[in-house]
């Protein structure tokens, strides 16, 4: 769920216009079937304990509050009462970038093609060799050029999103013997997701929450002109080709629209006006973020694998990684559960009822 986490005094730059993140206040409405209603109740109790203003609703209460929703086969619903909504991700990204540059960060654009590193060989208690690497420089190819630029560094933060696993492979991670630590890959890969913008002039308009059906279909309002954003994640066996970012419009016809129209018949009459595709940095292990350094690369820190929730997590994750680098430990929030350890010992940290 999105909420206004970044105050203007954190993002403002002297002599520059203030940032408008275009935050839209609107509650998230999750619908649960009988099979998963108990999970919703558990999540509700956790949220209330943490101070979130959420409410459980019966199907009758949902129908009274949102009469355009078909509550057939809905057993329970969870609705956010305050501090929820959505904002423009591109604006937030550029606000972070603008603030960083104002504080002395030098921005360079290019593609990482390799690393220069040193290797120390240690013997573990089992008598096996362990190769610890330390990055000395990053090889970067300039855009639209054959020029390569080595960038010397003391620390590298791997926030390469869907391609962070490939970046780690350049240092041999995942390429070692099968049952060794070096043979365990960073479990992050690109997964393509489609987002469709539809126009429905007779839609519910301002009365639209961010609706998430238990089928996986979601929809929210986009502006005030009868436009909405909708989509659904494909089944594991139907993951689309990631070699391009082309949109599959048949996917909307077959997988999105029927479920959407069933849950909200008002959307039986609509028109797709635009669409786009993007990559999730999908953590195949447990769909949760990976934060911290890799045990075999002493000066590479990871912030990846958020599986579609990276924007929401980014302020806290950025703060946490900075604390690890500067202080050697987390200070404000203990994010150690997101370290590589859970992957090494094969203890996934799964979250339930997520979008």
UniProtKB/TrEMBL annotation:
Major subcellular location class: mitochondrion
InterPro entries in the record: FAD-dep_OxRdtase, FAD/NAD-bd_sf
Topology in membrane: Single-pass membrane protein
Role of this protein: Required for the assembly of the mitochondrial membrane respiratory chain NADH dehydrogenase (Complex I). Involved in mid-late stages of complex I assembly.
Domain FAD dependent oxidoreductase: from-to ranges: 15-324
Compartments, as annotated in UniProt: Mitochondrion inner membrane
Record bears the keyword Aminoacyl-tRNA synthetase: no
One Gene Ontology biological process: mitochondrial respiratory chain complex I assembly
Record's keyword annotation contains rRNA processing: no
GO cellular component: mitochondrial inner membrane
Record-given protein name: FAD-dependent oxidoreductase domain-containing protein 1
Taxon lineage: Eukaryota, Metazoa, Chordata, Craniata, Vertebrata
Pfam families in the cross-refs: DAO (PF01266)
Necessary cofactors: FAD
Keywords recorded for this protein, A-Z: Electron transport, FAD, Flavoprotein, Membrane, Mitochondrion, Mitochondrion inner membrane, Oxidoreductase, Respiratory chain, Transmembrane, Transmembrane helix, Transport
A GO term, aspect molecular function: oxidoreductase activity
